[in-house]
From TrEMBL:
Limits of the Ig-like domain: 601-676, 681-767, 1093-1177
Domain of life of the native organism: Eukaryota
Cellular component terms (Gene Ontology): membrane
Bilayer topology term: Single-pass type I membrane protein
Location in the cell: Membrane
Family to which this protein belongs: Belongs to the immunoglobulin superfamily. ICAM family.
Stored InterPro entries: ICAM1_3_5_D2, ICAM_N, ICAM_VCAM, ICAM_VCAM_N, Ig-like_dom, Ig-like_dom_sf, Ig-like_fold, Ig_sub
SUPFAM superfamilies the UniProt entry points to: Immunoglobulin
Protein name: Titin-like
Gene: ICAM1
Signal peptide per UniProt: 1-22
Length: 1213
């Protein structure tokens, strides 16, 4: 068909579509049931009805059992056996009041008309009802040239298509008009009958519907195209079924049409339509062709029908071997019989719903039915036991679901019967002794189907047991003679079986006899081994000492071993063994015992010379005595030669010397230990709870406690510089010099040792005194002192200059206060020194306080004198001149400075390490020095130096203080040692979440265990070499080891994924501490950081590719967990997706315009999605050619201009 005809047909169709749609009454057709599914050959019944009253009739249109029910609102479609596949039933209702204007009217004429030849013009009226009232008028210009007598249609009441044909001439406008004429009985009142007409020209519009005017123009005859239209173009028909195919043409110069075929050929002269109709297609090579014969060239056109004749498989079955062994490949064959055509056949093997194999035959062009056997290799496993295998044959004849036929299911029952049966029994068994035999098949499958039979001298045993995949029969048997027995193991699985046999022989071997006895140490003993009654009588006897042979005899001769009894031999194993040699093997029996060497006891436990215990404990809880002797010795404790119960609770009076005695009938052994029973202190003094002292007086009181070991004393009292505490010989003394109100308060004495502590309190009250009276008394004593001193020196026989040194009152020299002597009786010097110059002297008299608790001197009167040398041999009384004045020395006047020097001044020591510290003073009036401490206290009288020496410092609260006791004020100076005891952390570790999320704060905790002291501890968190945090504990004064958990907040970034975190605990111990500072690091910890994907390139890209070329589109993103990729684009055969090493690509080959679009890449993990859009533009090759042409033309123009310019230049010259 030429282009003009095509465009005209398209225009007519559009016009027809535009003018249709006149409103019609509602069609009320009810089908019950509305949908029917029926098996081929079964009966079917369907009801069709309407509720409208103006019904003319009802019926069913169908290729089987059509129905027509006039004047009825109901019609039944009833088919007893539905044996056609294309029935396509339709229910129709005819109504009295329905009219339907034509949907459209067409005029058809030949595209080409020969001059002088007549032609026909056809008017086609579509979709009109009711057709019996249809009138069609045909106009040539305005003149009617034909009426409705020529109308043919295909129905009466229903909307139909009508056709009228008129002869025509060329060069004239023709119009076709259709109208419905109901006469005088029309149901439409007061209106003319409905009709349709065409629009002829401007201003002539009518309400009718007409065909388009069609003007025919003659043209010269040319060669026309071949036009053969086959409907349907492709036919799929089952062998033996009917087939109908139409073939037509629209050309007008048709001479005839027909079908060429090996069955039902057709030849229809002068017809543009031909039908190939076969009631039963029973040939495979029909190959029908439609031909059209024309008057003009081409004279004949033909086209072959695409015909597919098929046949269901006669049968589909599975063929499998009788036994399929597990792990071995076997073939399961699908057999498909009598199927056609094979090129559309696909055979599949299924295990349950799982497809195992697929075989097609697309290259086989055979049209006739064939038989096919398709093997599928299968290697069964134990899991396949009981699985059902099915073969499915499919004919995929066209679009839609294929035609399928399946085999009966085959149930897989694989076996594993590879192992040989195992017969476990000794070839030699002892007569009249029960023996065990086992017949076993290992790794059998299925084990429940295995049959096992054990035959012992033809006696059958079938008591089957299973152990996983092992199947066995185990029985006990006894031989009553030396005759051999035949034992057979027989196993079977289905029709397969295996056997093994063995002969078993009997022997006799009695138990050996071992003779031995107890022997006293250092004496000789004998061991004998014998056996009697063996068969055969070829035994060997052996004696073995701890597994080593010491004697061996043959042929039933007894074996003996003579030995010297030693203490070390006691308890060692001696074995009597007998061996019977039998053919290829031997059997043994043995009897064992141990040597019994008798010896006196010894004590193996080391006992200390002395032992400190605590009141309330027992000896047995501290002494575990291990004594050795044979027979085993008895052990007792002795004190004062009397037996002592070691489980008795000890009291403080139970200390003393103890003996542990162990004994048996061959001797005894002793161990001696001195036991000290310790107990906690109890304070004896002070006995009073309060004491008073006058303001300015001195006060001394003691604290005494009883305890073992000797208690150590500490005091709690009001702080004051005039309070001195000394401890000597188990007595702790508090001395208050010049009492004042600051000394008022409670004084607590704490006596403690390793077993406990005790406390006693004394309240000191300071009251007023008469200072004036004391002063007068002091002055009077000073006045009397001068003549006494002079008188004493006057009596000296030696002349010279003497030095009077002050001395403290004592029991040796007395004092005014405590023995009533006069000042004359008090020696004032302890040495003398000859001088040639004048000297000054100070003489002091002291007054003793009346308080009985006071041992100090509080008021001192001093006289300063000068003695002048008169001669070398005699000092005269008159030579003594009083140069000074009477001076009252107030309390504390001119006191020497407290000087305590500790070296080193600061000590840093690790817990458990040794420590040595010196303490000294440069003062000359030292009475003694020492150290107060909870460990290794020191007291050194008359020494200016004292050393605190601890071999292993294992106490956290030592707090050592050095004290210096002096004769003058201040009488005691105390200085505390700056002591730091440290301990490395036992462990440093990190506690962190399993993972962290980017931008979200998490906590990483440093855990430091068992470290001291906390105030010097610094905990740091590192990420690689970068410090993230630091925490100190300077305000923590705890001396003991502590555990610290230090949280550090961390907000990770992408760069932190996989970073190593480390916790460092550092002890910054300061001066005297180890350098560098002690540190301990935790093991590094890597914490994954999760974050959503982010693209590694721009999120928008525009790329180009030339048509037919190839291109790769890439998409990559960084994320944790690693992202997965999803592309979105219309799928095409030339597009392939590949994801590898974190990069996803789309590979496009042979690009075409169908690939010209946007490709979306989605990189996603559980934390988010990143999207990339790539716009691909496919450029056509035409643009490239155009550019080549343009460039080529440009080059030619340029060359032409250049040549012309050159020529012009030459002419000009």
């Amino acid at each position: 068909m030429e282009f003009g005809s095509v465009m005209r047909a398209m225009f007519l169709g559009l016009l027809c579509f535009a003018v249709t749609g006149a409103a019609s009454p509602v069609c009320d057709v009810n089908i019950d049931p509305s949908g029917v599914v029926v098996r081929f050959g079964d009966p079917v019944t369907v009801n069709c009805s309407t509720t409208r009253e103006d019904v003319l009739g009802a019926g069913w249109e169908s290729s089987v059992s059509p129905v027509n029910e006039p004047n009825s609102t109901t019609a039944f479609l009833n088919v007893s056996s539905l044996a056609v596949l294309d029935a396509k039933p339709k229910c129709s209702m005819n109504f009295n009041n329905e009219t339907k204007l034509p949907e459209c009217i067409f005029l058809f004429a030949p595209e080409f008309m020969k001059i002088g030849n007549g032609s026909n013009l056809k008017c086609l009226v579509l979709g009109v009802a009711s057709a019996q009232y249809l009138a069609v008028q045909f106009y040539k210009g305005d003149d009617q040239i034909a009426g409705s007598d020529n109308v043919t249609h295909n129905g009466t009441q229903f909307p139909v298509n009508a056709t009228i044909t008129f002869p025509i001439n060329h060069g004239v406008n023709y119009t076709c008009t259709a109208e419905l004429d109901f006469g005088s009985e029309t149901p439409i009142q007061d209106t003319s009958p409905p009709y349709a007409t065409s629009t002829i020209g401007p201003g002539e519009e009518k309400l009718n519907m007409s065909s388009l005017s069609y003007t025919i123009s003659p043209t010269a005859a040319d060669s026309l195209p071949c036009e053969v239209n086959i409907d349907p173009s492709r036919v799929v028909v089952r062998f033996g079924d009917p087939v109908t195919v139409n073939c037509s043409t629209t050309r007008e110069d048709v001479m005839g049409a027909g079908w060429e075929s090996s069955v039902s050929s057709v030849n229809e002269p002068n017809s543009k339509i031909t039908v190939w109709n076969v009631s039963s297609l029973i040939v495979w090579d029909a190959e029908p062709k439609c031909f059209i014969n024309y008057m003009n060239e081409p004279r004949q056109c033909e086209e072959k029908l695409d015909l597919v004749i098929y046949k269901y498989p006669e049968s589909v079955s599975l063929i499998a071997p009788e036994f399929m062994k597990i792990g071995e490949e076997s073939n399961i064959t699908c057999q498909v019989l009598d199927v056609a055509p094979i090129r559309y056949l696909t055979v599949k093997l299924y295990k349950g719903d799982e497809q195992l194999g697929n075989r097609s035959f697309t290259h086989n062009s055979t049209r006739f039915p064939v038989n096919e056997s398709i093997p599928f290799p299968v290697t069964p496993t134990r899991a396949d036991n009981g699985a059902e295998y099915t073969c499915v044959a499919e004919l995929q004849l066209g679009p839609g679901e294929p035609i399928k036929n399946s085999s009966l299911p085959f149930r897989m029952l694989p076996i594993d019967f590879e192992e040989q049966p195992i017969l476990t029994v000794s070839e030699n068994v002892e007569v009249n002794q029960s023996s065990t035999v086992r017949c076993e098949l290992k790794n059998a499958f299925p084990p429940e189907e295995v049959q096992v039979e054990l035959l012992i001298n033809n006696e059958s045993h079938t008591n089957i047991s299973t152990d996983m995949d092992n199947v066995y029969v185990e029985e006990s048997f006894t031989l009553d003679s030396f005759e051999p027995a035949v034992i057979t193991c027989h196993v079977s699985l289905r029709s397969l079986s295996k056997s093994t046999s063995r002969n078993v022989r009997g022997y006799v071997l009695p138990e050996p006899t071992l003779h031995t006895e107890a022997v006293l140490v250092n004496h000789t003993g004998i061991v004998t081994c014998t056996v009697d009654g063996s068969f055969p009588a070829t035994t060997t006897q052996r004696l073995l000492l701890n597994g080593s042979i010491v004697n061996e005899t043959h042929n039933s001769t007894p074996a003996q071993y003579e030995f010297k009894a030693e203490k070390e031999l006691n308890g060692k194993m001696i074995t009597c063994e007998t061996e019977l040699n039998l053919a290829a093997t031997s059997v043994k029996k043995n009897q064992s015992t141990t040597f019994n060497v008798l010896y006196p006891p010894t004590i193996k436990t080391h006992f200390p010379v002395s032992k400190d215990l605590k009141e309330g404990e027992t000896l047995s809880s501290h002494f575990d005595c291990e004594a050795e002797g044979n027979p085993p010795p008895k052990t007792v404790w002795l004190k004062d030669s009397k037996e002592f119960d070691s489980s008795k609770i000890l009291t403080r009076t139970d200390g003393g010397v103890y003996q542990l005695k162990t004994m048996n009938k061959f001797g005894s052994a002793l161990a001696t230990v001195t036991v000290t029973v310790g107990y906690e202190p109890s304070v004896i003094n002070p006995a009073v709870e309060s004491v008073s002292v006058l303001n300015g007086d001195s006060l001394v009181f003691n604290c005494t406690a009883d305890g073992i070991p000797a208690p150590t004393y500490t005091w709690k009292h009001p702080e004051a510089d005039n309070v001195k505490i000394t401890t000597k010989d188990g007595v702790s003394t508090v001395t208050i010099t010049g009492a004042s109100s600051s000394n008022h308060g409670v004084y607590e004495c704490h006596a403690w040792n390793l077993h406990g502590n005790s406390t006693r309190k004394v309240t000191v009250e300071v009251t007023g005194n008469n200072t004036l009276l004391l002063t007068l008394v002091a002055v009077a004593v000073a006045v009397l002192l001068v003549p006494i001193v002079c008188f004493a020196y006057k009596k000296k026989s030696t002349t010279g200059s003497y030095t009077f040194l002050p001395t403290n009152p004592s029991s040796a020299n007395g004092s005014v206060a405590n023995n009533g002597q006069t000042a004359e009786d008090i020696p004032l010097t302890t040495g003398r020194q000859r001088q040639s110059n004048n000297r000054s002297y100070t003489c002091c008299i002291v007054k003793h306080s009346p308080n009985s608790y006071t041992h100090s001197y509080v008021h001192t009167v001093c006289i300063y004198v000068s003695c002048i040398t008169i001669s070398k041999h005699k000092m005269e009384f008159g030579s003594l001149i009083v140069l000074g004045v009477l001076v009252l020395c107030p309390e504390g006047a001119a006191s020497p400075v407290c000087e305590v020097n500790i070296d080193p001044s600061r000590v840093v020591v690790r817990f458990g390490d040794p420590v040595i510290v010196n303490c000294s003073t440069t003062r000359e009036d030292v009475m003694g020095a020492g150290w107060e401490s909870s460990i290794n206290p020191v007291n050194e009288p008359n020494s200016k130096i004292t050393v605190w020496n601890v071999s292993s410092l294992t106490s956290w609260d030592a707090e050592p203080k050095c004290f210096i006791n002096c004769m003058n004020e201040p009488r005691q100076c105390v200085q505390k040692l700056d002591l730091v005891i440290y301990k490395y952390p036992q462990s440093v570790s990190l506690i962190a979440p399993e993972f962290m999320k980017i931008g979200v704060e998490s906590t990483i905790t440093c855990q430091v265990l068992d470290v001291a002291p906390a105030r010097y501890l610094s905990v740091k968190l590192y990420k690689g070499d970068e410090q993230l945090g630091n925490r100190s504990f300077t305000h923590n004064s705890t001396r003991f080891p502590v555990n610290e958990s230090v949280p550090f907040p961390v907000t990770p970034t992408r760069a932190d994924n996989g970073a190593g975190y480390t916790c460092v605990a550092e002890l910054q111990l300061g001066p005297g501490g180890p350098k560098p500072n002690p540190t301990k690091r935790s093991p590094p910890l890597k914490i994954p950081v999760f974050y959503k994907p982010s693209l590694l390139s721009a999120d928008e890209e525009n790329v180009e590719v030339r048509e037919g070329g190839s291109i790769v589109l890439k998409c990559s993103a960084d994320g944790n967990p690693a992202p997965t990729y999803e592309w979105k684009y219309p799928k095409a055969d030339n597009v392939q997706e590949i994801t590898k090493d974190g990069v996803s690509t789309v590979n496009i080959t042979r690009a075409s315009s169908s690939n010209d679009r946007v490709y979306e890449c989605h990189a996603k993990n559980r934390y988010g999605v990143a999207t990339k859009n790539i716009t691909l533009t496919v450029k056509g090759r035409g643009a490239f050619v155009c550019w080549v042409v343009v460039i080529g033309v440009g080059v030619l123009v340029f060359v032409g201009l250049a040549v012309g310019f050159i020529c012009y230049g030459k002419r000009a010259t």
